[in-house]
Amino acid sequence: MMVDPTLAEMGKNLNEAMKILEDGGKASDPDADRRQFSRSSIPGPLQGDGQDVASILQLVQNLMHEDEEEDKPSHRRMQNVGEQGHMALLGHSLAAYISVLDRERLRKLITRIASDTTLWLCRLFRYESGSAYYHEDDREGLLKVCRLVINTRYEDYSTEGYTVLNSRQPVIYQSATCRPGLGQHLCSQLALPLSSLCTVPCNTMFGSQHQMDIALLDKLIREDVETGKLPLLLIANAGTPGAGHTDKLGRLKELCEQYGMWLHIEGVNLATLALWEVSSPVTAATRSDSMTLTLGPWLGLPAVPAVTLYRHEDPALSLAAGLTSSQPVEKLRALPLWLSLQYLGHDGIVEKIRHAVELSQQLLEKLKTLASIKTSVEDELNSPVVVFRFSQETSAESSGGSVEGYFAGEREVLDSLNRWLCEQLAQLVPASGVDIVELEDEGTCVRFTPLMTAAALGTQRCDVDLLVERLIELIPVLNCTLRLRLDFREEVYRHSALSYIEDLSWPGLGAVRYEPRVEELTDSKRKLEVEKINSELLVKLGDLDADLIFSTGLEFGPEKDCIFIGMATEDLDVAELVDTIAALGRDIEENGRLLENMTEVVRKGIQEAELQLQKDNQDKLMEEGVLRQIPLVGSVLNWFSPFQSTVKGRTFNLAAGSLDSTEPTYSMKAQTGGLVSPETPTSSAKRLPGQRLFRREGAGGSDSHSETSSVGQAEDFSRERFPQPTTPSPVQDEAVSVVPESPEIPQVPAEPEPTQEKGEVGTQEKERQPDGQDAPVEETGR
Q1: Which residue in 14, 73, 12 sits closest to 303, CA to CA?
Q2: For residue 144, what are the contacts with CB-CB under 8 A and spacing of at least 6?
Q3: In the chain, pLDDT over 90 holds for what percent of residues?
Q4: 177: which of 365, 525, 614, 655 is 20 to 30 A away, CA to CA?
């Protein structure tokens, strides 16, 4: 068989490029090492001689992995680009190569590619007699369909333009659960006023709260017709973006036929049309006028276009609307999809979709057995989307009293806990592909959509089992934290120096701030003092041997200069925790005051010491006489008639800020009067060996369980999210040693030569001082 050498070279280059970009390998060129680009040496302007393919690919690889050290590998979801992905990428290269063929060969080739792909998709998704439009933006197909409907309903639109719309204003109807911003995008692209967009609310009394209210839709259409407006198009969902629910498509189709409207359907549940057994609500989508399919996420194909299937008999209007093109190159958009569909085959495509649906059913069955988990699934037998959330135990009792509605802002707290739960599950089981979804009625939920993620992440049944195991381990932590929040708030209120911070968005025990007790400070100084104390307090709490996580809170949170406590366990002693926080904060405040007053104390003490030294020197001079001051005569006189001075030494006590005599030191051979700072009151004496802080004895939880469970991993993740500031620890009272350095201090007069008795005393002064005593600074005339 004859092989085009260009195609063979293209496939070879693609394989080599994928190896370099995916595996981080080297180029096959032996000189590639010397042409590697470092992050700091990437050139800005173009090089004069150009570069080869291997060098350019190496540059692309460096740019792709530029922040690899900063990003955590467990947090990133890299798509598994398998062989079918390589076929899709090869399609883009082939499209560029095919576009240079002569016009006749190009026309025949693109006609074959477009017709084959359209026929396969229409048969695969049971959409008979349909045409296909391939587009990169998944909203572009709906936009072209709107142009087609406008051209169809307004006969003079091609000649008169938008002036014909003034006679009867067109109206586009969409569900309240449609993608955010979809209707506004259509109006802006079609140059229609926002009054042409009508959002239909969902059911409030009967049926799913995520389905369009058909009775209300009928009423809105009749009102628009009576006011002279033209119902143009209805956008329905076969799998809402949030909860994955499907509108009653059969009833909506009948309503559209009644008023001559166009029915467009989109949603992830359209993928189930390829299965042998399809639920009846989704089957009705085959009767729609158009629908949009996103095959890339469903099948794990990178960079393949979305497809909009539609039915229309007038090719001229389709050409005017942009659904078809006379440019051959634009029709090559289907080439990556054409290659990928052939590589997977019918059975491969159906198997991928079936596997995703089975994963959803597997998770749903396991979630039904968990008491604290509520699910929001429309069709329990065949739903590819599972939405669940943590909900408090209605039958549980705790020390905090009743759980159901026991504090204000319960909805916000549950939302924050569910947000934390989703983050932990996504970190612990990255192959699950769970994400956060905000629903109007349910609040914050965890969503599992394997149709959109399983093919790319390679999700398997074992990943679902692991997801449930991690969920079971995290549920007790959520229940305990929810029950102990009230106890924590009440304990904080018992301490006048602590302020409870109400932050409902924090997923944890709560937040507290230590307030200094000095009231004469100005607002600016008080703010700085609060910031300093709480910063040092956070560091001290982080150094404790405890399972709790202390942080500064959310990065963009409203509360600052406070301490946030993370998730709690069953055996947490809240009273001991709050008492420890208050005691540490009090110690930091007192130490800070001591350091602030130390400068003034030392200054006054030095001044007093100078005066005392001058007085002692004068008294000593008067006692010894003038003859003893003469160098030679004084030595001889002291030899024959030793003189013992009555002037005693002085010590400067930094803690008391006073001058004391050295007589007790000489007599007792030890320093006295030292102040010892009281230690932080904790229950360390009451704790058992190996027991960590803030644990109650005999509690339901055990140390071994907490250390082996995934809660430790989850708390490590919290440490990564909320880094703690590295503030230096304050100086302890018993370790204060101040050495004043002032150029204004005069030199102390020289001490006369000591006698033998004084020499012995001096030796005694050098003895080691006992621990826990203040080290006095001796001020003497000697």
Answers
A1: 14
A2: 133, 135, 308, 321, 322, 323
A3: 37
A4: 365
Give the angle 25-31-35 at the CA atoms, nearest 5°.
75
Which amino acid, residue 561? Answer: D
Q: List pLDDT tens digits, range 392-406.
A: 754 333 334 333 444
- Is residue 291 within 8 A of residue 285, CB to CB? The reply is yes
| CA angle 310–316–322, rounded 5-degree value | 60
- Decide if 777 contacts 654 (C-beta within 8 A): yes
How confident is the model at residue 614, as a pLDDT? Answer: 81
Distance CA(513)–CA(581), nearest Å, equals 9
| Distance of alpha carbon 127 from alpha carbon 106, whole angstroms | 28
Helix (H), strand (E), coil (C) string for 441-466: CCEEEEEECHHHHHHHHCCCHHHHHH
Any residues with CB less than 8 A from the CB of 555 and at least 6 apart, and which? 722
- Rounded Cα distance, 267 and 413, in Å: 31
> What are the strands, taking DSSP E only, across 577-704?
650-653, 658-661
Rg (the chain; Cα; Å) = 40
**DSSP state at residue 330:** G
Helix axes 83-98, 103-124, angle to 10 degrees: 150
Calpha distance 727→536 (Å, rounded) = 6
461-496: b or e for each residue (b if 16 or more CB lie within 10 Å)?
A: eebbebbbebbbbbbbbbbbbbbbbbbbbebbeebe
Measured CA angle at 298 (ends 295, 300), to 5 deg: 95
- Provide the pLDDT for residue 146: 96
563-565 and 510-514 beta bridge pairing: antiparallel
**What burial class does residue 526 get, using C-beta atoms within 10 Å of its C-beta: 0-12 exposed, 13-18 middle, 19+ buried?**
middle
Does residue 324 carry a pLDDT above 50? yes
Query: Per-residue pLDDT tens for 709-719?
Result: 334 444 444 44
Element (H, E) at 253: helix 249-259
Q: How far apart are CA 33 and CA 37, in angstroms?
A: 9
Which helix (H) or strand (E) covers residue 411, if one does? helix 410-428
Contact assessment for residue 408 and residue 467, using Cβ atoms and an 8 Å cutoff? no
Backbone region of residue 694 per phi and psi (left: phi > 0; alpha: psi in -120 to 50; beta: other values): left
Q: Secondary structure of the chain: what % helix, strand, coil (to 5)?
A: 50, 10, 40
355 φ, ψ (degrees, to nearest 5): -60, -40
Beta strands 386-390; 373-375: pairing state? antiparallel
Task: Evaluate whether 384 touches 272 at the Cβ level (below 8 Å).
Answer: yes
In a 13 Å sphere around the CA of 248, the CA atoms on its Cβ side amount to: 16
The three state secondary structure string of 94-105 is HHHHHCCCCHHH
- N-terminal to C-terminal alpha carbon distance within the chain: 111
pLDDT band at 348 (very low <50, low <70, confident <90, very high): very high
Cα(63)–Cα(38) distance, rounded to whole angstroms? 9
How far is residue 222's CA from residue 216's CA, in Å, rounded to a whole number? 10
Q: 686 — phi, psi (to 5°)?
A: -90, -15
Other C-beta atoms within 10 Å of 534: how many? 23
Q: Which of 472, 322, 452 is nearest to 388 (CA)?
A: 472
- For the chain, counts of helices (H) and of strands (E): 23, 18
CA–CA gap between residue 267 and residue 293 (Å, rounded): 8
What tokens does 523 get?
């607002």
